[in-house]
């Protein structure tokens, strides 16, 4: 914590291997209220020193974290495999993604556009009144609490996307470790703490806390020194943190990524020839990837009730029957999947189409495929809700003998009934005029509902790039204006400050006349590269 290891005072926590149910040492001490407050006080005390770093210093700090994580090497992967049940190859890839996104944020910080520097020079001769000199730049919000996600123990946990983007913004971070992978969290936490020390920063720039139950999270969200919360997990957990943050004397933003069923619409023209079998194979691959434990798992697929659609349906049924379950992250997550799938299967008009085989161990649940009709789906919100895991719902829609316009209206009505989503995917036949009519009708509906629209492909892969959006209207997230993946994520932790008639010597470097950080600045409304303004 704040660069120093602390002894937990309220008990300890052991990891559980979800593949066997065995406990895994060592024990991690759980902090008490005074220790939580010490971490947020240290974060507050570190804020001014941290935020005054130059872009080059902040970039070097982020790169140091990435280098330190790389240095841990195989020990980190082995520990994460043991604690999560995820395969080694997946975790190796996730480690690459984690260090890759830290380095991407280093690039973003060094390049400096996130500061959005704007200068409206004074117009002393303007009539009827002169205009004052006005300058604007982004400043960090202050200490941020990050809740590590269970399903990305590296890329969305201790030094994952939320932490990397908050640090990139210049916000000290207090991480509430996810109790499903404490050893992984500790190894990464040490790597970050070493980078803090080696960069000459105060220890309060980063703390990692272990706590039992909801109390620590609630205490952190209510702490007056905390200025924002970032969370990935359940809808209930996200909502609880939103309520706490909103009820504070000084309410603060919560960026919670919660629940999404990621609808996929397969249009008739996409299923011709061999496409039905190929699409079904890709669908079941995406549905069962990582035991279905992705926020972008394709939980809903709308497929036409046509002979081609029947072939897709039969292939998906066969492939799910042949699939074997993989170990889920924790016992409670597996139990929640069982309860969610049972309750969905018990709904009227929902049929269980296929059940695969359970894998070895207590938490490797059999993948499941369910089906319903378009009318039931459109009118019963319960059928849209996410079941976290490899459980798919196929929605059959009538398509034969209908005009493209009538089909477009029926599908638009179904999509209008959806809650906010992270993604929606359209599969349309190349060159199909009828599909094109439907696509044009659905796109404006989807733009209102989701954060990322895919044309072809499957939503489970989320690239970490500048154009990526991993966000969307509630309940996909608590704030649809941002993203938790990609470089735009940094903006969640920044706010604008305007400086009016402030003498150059008192301005932050981003806004000084000499432009010492070489930023691209918007001068009088026009963006011009730094070199053109020298
Ligand atoms: P979770 O129960 O929401 O927990 C996530 C983190 O938030 C944990 O550190 C937890 O602390 C804390 N927390 C939860 N409820 C809280 C509350 N009321 N007040 C304060 N802190 C709270 O998520 P999970 O354990 O990872 O998985 C449970 C379910 O969440 C899954 O079955 C799945 O449905 C969903 N989930 C969704 C996604 C997604 O990407 N959409 C990802 C992961 C999980 P403690 O553990 O210490 O209580």
UniProtKB/TrEMBL annotation:
The keyword Oxidoreductase applies. Residues 1-20 are annotated as: Disordered. Keywords: Oxidoreductase. The keyword Oxidoreductase applies. It comes from the Bacteria. Residues 13-397 form the Aldehyde dehydrogenase domain. It holds the Pfam family Aldedh. InterPro entries: Ald_DH/histidinol_DH, Ald_DH_N, Aldehyde_DH_dom, Aldehyde_DH_Superfamily, ALDH_KGSADH. SUPFAM superfamilies: ALDH-like (SSF53720). This is Aldehyde dehydrogenase (NADP(+)).
């Amino acid at each position: 914590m704040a660069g120093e290891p602390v002894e937990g005072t309220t008990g300890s926590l052991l990891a559980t291997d979800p593949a066997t149910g065995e406990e895994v040492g060592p024990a991690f001490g759980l902090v008490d209220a005074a220790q939580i407050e010490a971490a947020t006080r240290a974060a507050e005390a570190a804020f001014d020193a941290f935020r005054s770093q130059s872009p080059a210093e902040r970039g070097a700090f982020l790169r140091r974290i990435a280098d330190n994580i790389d240095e841990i090497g195989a020990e980190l992967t082995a520990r994460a495999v043991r604690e999560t049940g995820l395969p080694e190859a997946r975790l190796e890839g996730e480690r690459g993604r984690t260090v890759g996104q830290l380095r991407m944020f280093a690039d973003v910080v060094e390049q400096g556009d996130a500061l959005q520097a704007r200068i409206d020079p004074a117009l002393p001769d303007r009539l009827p009144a002169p205009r004052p000199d006005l300058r604007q730049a982004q400043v960090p919000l202050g200490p941020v609490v990050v809740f590590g996600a269970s399903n990305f123990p590296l890329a969305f946990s201790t030094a994952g996307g939320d932490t990397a983007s908050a640090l990139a913004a210049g916000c000290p971070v207090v991480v509430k470790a996810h109790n499903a992978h404490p050893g992984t969290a500790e190894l990464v936490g040490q790597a970050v703490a070493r980078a803090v020390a080696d960069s000459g920063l105060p220890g309060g720039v980063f703390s990692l806390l272990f706590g039992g139950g909801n109390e620590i999270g609630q205490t952190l969200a209510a702490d007056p020194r905390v200025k924002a919360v970032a969370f990935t997990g359940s809808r209930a957990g996200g909502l609880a943190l939103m309520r706490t943050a909103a009820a504070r004397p000084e309410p603060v933003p919560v960026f919670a990524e919660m629940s999404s069923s990621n609808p996929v619409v397969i249009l008739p023209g996409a299923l011709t020839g061999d496409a039905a079998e190929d699409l079904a194979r890709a669908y079941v691959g995406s549905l069962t990837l990582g035991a279905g434990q992705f926020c972008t798992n394709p939980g809903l697929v709308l497929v036409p009730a046509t002979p081609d659609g029947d072939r897709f349906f039969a292939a998906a049924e066969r492939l799910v029957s042949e699939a074997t379950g993989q170990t889920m992250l924790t016992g409670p997550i597996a139990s929640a999947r069982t309860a969610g799938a049972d309750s969905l299967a018990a709904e009227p008009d929902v049929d269980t189409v296929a059940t695969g085989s359970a894998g070895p161990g207590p938490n490797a649940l059999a993948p499941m495929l369910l089906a319903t009709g378009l009318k039931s789906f459109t009118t019963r919100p319960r059928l849209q809700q996410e079941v976290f895991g490899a459980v798919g719902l196929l929605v059959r829609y009538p398509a034969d003998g209908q005009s493209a316009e009538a089909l477009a209206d029926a599908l638009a009505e179904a999509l209008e009934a959806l809650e906010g989503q992270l993604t929606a995917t359209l599969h349309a036949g190349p060159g199909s005029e009828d599909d094109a009519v439907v696509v044009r009708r659905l796109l404006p509906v989807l733009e209102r509902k989701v954060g990322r629209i895919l044309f072809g492909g499957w939503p489970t892969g989320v690239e970490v790039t500048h154009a990526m959006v991993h966000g969307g209207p509630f309940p996909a997230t608590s704030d649809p204006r941002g993203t938790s993946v990609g470089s735009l994520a940094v903006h969640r932790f920044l706010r604008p400050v305007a400086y009016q008639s402030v003498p150059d010597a008192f301005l932050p470097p981003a806004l000084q006349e000499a432009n010492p950080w070489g930023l691209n600045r918007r001068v009088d409304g026009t963006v011009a590269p730094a070199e053109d303004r020298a």
